[in-house]
Amino acid sequence: MANGSSLAAMELMVFLGLVGWLLYYQYSNSRNDSSRTRSSDEAPKEPD
Q1: Where is the chain membrane-spanning (predicted)?
Q2: Which residue from 24, 20, 23, 46 is spatially nearest to 35, judged by alpha carbons?
Q3: What CA–CA distance (Å, rounded) separates 8 from 10?
């Protein structure tokens, strides 16, 4: 059943793409966090 294996490969690619996108999103957020805290009213995580 080649259809099943191709479906599994497609699911794996979608899953890996989602995980990669989430990791990139978290990395990008953590990088921009230092510039975002200045405009945010929340207490900064790092002491001044």
Answers
A1: 6-25
A2: 46
A3: 5
> What pLDDT does residue 35 have?
58
Q: Which two tokens stand for residue 26?
A: 């978290």
Residue 21, both tokens: 């996108």
pLDDT in tens, 7-29: 999 999 999 999 999 999 999 98
Q: Which of 39, 40, 37 has its CA nearest to residue 48?
A: 37
DSSP string, 4-47: HHHHHHHHHHHHHHHHHHHHHHHHHHHHHHHHHHHH--SPPSS-
